[in-house]
Amino acid sequence: MSTITHIVLDDANLPPPTPEIEQERKVAMFDLLEDNSFVLPVRDARPVPPGPYHLGLSIRDKRLVFDVSTEDAEKAAEFHLSLGPFRQVVKDYFQICESYFDAVKKLPPAQIETIDMARRGIHMEGSRVLQERLEGKAEIDIDTARRLFTLICVLHFGG
Known about the structure:
Shape: elongated
Largest sheet: 4 strands, mixed
Distance between the termini: 34 Å
Structural class: alpha+beta
Helix content: 40-55%
Order of helices and strands: EHEEEEHHEH
Strand content: 15-25%
């Protein structure tokens, strides 16, 4: 099975993240590198360079760009995804995260748990959208999709 062993998030043109967003990013990157599944399928009968892979994630020209290379810096794939299908779920996710971060400071555990369950549900929805958008380009499991969706949210931050 192929994996991602290195990831670069191109957030150079974004405003500085909040401490909460920065923490989400660090956790997602750590978890992603610890355990992931990333397979490039054969396309147009061309051979697929074997993994493990390095992944660059960026937003260019209002498109989400996956730049995939081998550990020897050989170009393995590059694909651009429309941001349209992600806009609403990312917006919803940021709103629920803001509510969650506020709740942690002042609400009782039962209410925090309810908001957290809603937050996880929206996060799963975004992960499923990502898996659908990557169909035919890359095969990822749900845990990898969840972590990548978090990083996509980080790239949307302030964008």
